Amino acid sequence: MNFLISMPGSLEIIIMLSGLTLTIVPLVFYLLTLQSTFNAVSPENRKMPSSNVWLLLIPVFGLAWHFFVVNRLSDSIQAEANARNIKLEEFRPTRQIGLAMCILGASTLIPVINALTGLAFIVCWIIYWVKINNYRKILLESEANLLARG
Predict the structure, then answer these.
(1) pTM of the model
(2) Average pLDDT score over residue span 69-75
């Protein structure tokens, strides 16, 4: 009888599923952006396989792996820009905001400050995502220009 009392009702299930959906859908699109940015880099300049971004889905491990992804994607973009003679605004693009995002993400595990760092993490995550997507577009446009010149 106590078991039935503690079971969630349909409203609670809908709220939980909505929350899960609001978390998973943006995460999948974020990972697709990371993967497509790695794919925009030529294989010789890619510092890790693009499929490795999906390891970020592994709980706890993903927090640490995010640091590696940020650094390797930054180095990959830099190497590709150097190879194509693309002038970038920053050295090791997206690395600073990416590391800030990772540090804030890891600090959400600290109970006293997790609300503040969680909000700051979301802001940095969005900024990082937009910057990565912009660099992906720069690489794709550069590739299209190279192909057009023949």
Answers:
(1) 0.88
(2) 98
